[in-house]
Amino acid sequence: MTQKLDTLQAAIERVIGDRIVHLVRDRGELTLTVKATDYAAIGKTLRDHPDLGFEQLIDICGVDYSGYKDGGYEGLRYAAVSHLLSVQHNWRLRLKVFAPDDDFPLVASLTPIWSGANWFEREAFDMYGIVFDGHTDLRRILTDYGFIGHPMRKDFPVTGHVEMRYDPEQKRVIYQPVSIEPREITPRIIREDNYGGLH
Predict the structure, then answer these.
(1) What's the pLDDT tens digit per position in 71-126?
(2) Exposed (0-12), middle (13-18) or buried (19+): which is 78, by Cβ within 10 Å?
(3) Which SUPFAM superfamilies match?
């Protein structure tokens, strides 16, 4: 395993070169961080270069770093993290890119390179609000079309903004402000008369 990682790391350093922002080796895995401006081009290189051969994209997920290290993190807030697999070389790589603008997180789409990125990018858009430039059908995939916000962002309220319920009078589903009834959070302890041998 170590020799294989050495080979992969050397190939990445040779092929990608000075476009590498970070190349971290931890727990038997490599994570390559690149600039947003180089993201799509490096993705294509990772797929097409014979020494790398990452022909399969396994997953893309969004990350919100605003609460990272208990709020002590001072870098860019949003990242898209892709997991790549090379079947021919039997190795994996994590590819990370940070969106340069926290107010409007935008990175290039990988769908022209790996068509399987389609729904993963839609999920990252829906959950984190990361916009993938060049995606041909970037719309919500997990939340309702009328949903407001992006629920996996650290600043999204746990209760949400609205709740939906079926209204029998209107005979349809309606949205209304969240109404959470206060409840007692102290657990009740019920003990028998002779609990633990005590009288």
Answers:
(1) 777 889 999 999 999 999 999 999 999 999 999 999 999 999 999 999 999 999 99
(2) buried
(3) Nqo5-like
- What six digits make up the tokens of 115? 């068509």
- Dihedral (CA of 57, 128, 34, 4) sign: negative
Q: Cβ atoms within 10 A of the Cβ of 79, count? A: 22
Please say if the pLDDT value at position 159 is more than 60: yes
* Strand ranges, E, within the chain: 20-26, 29-34, 56-64, 78-86, 91-98, 106-108, 131-133, 162-167, 172-177
| Per-residue pLDDT at 64 exceeds 90 | yes
Burial of residue 127, with CB atoms counted within 10 A of its CB: 0-12 exposed, 13-18 middle, 19 or more buried: buried
Q: Judge contact between 101 and 78, C-beta under 8 A.
A: no
- Please spell the DSSP secondary structure of 114-151, one letter per residue: -TTHHHHHHHHHHHH--EEET-TT---SSS-TT--S-T
Helix (H) or strand (E) holding 46: helix 39-48
Domain 2-143 class, CATH top level: alpha beta
Q: What is the pTM of this model?
A: 0.82
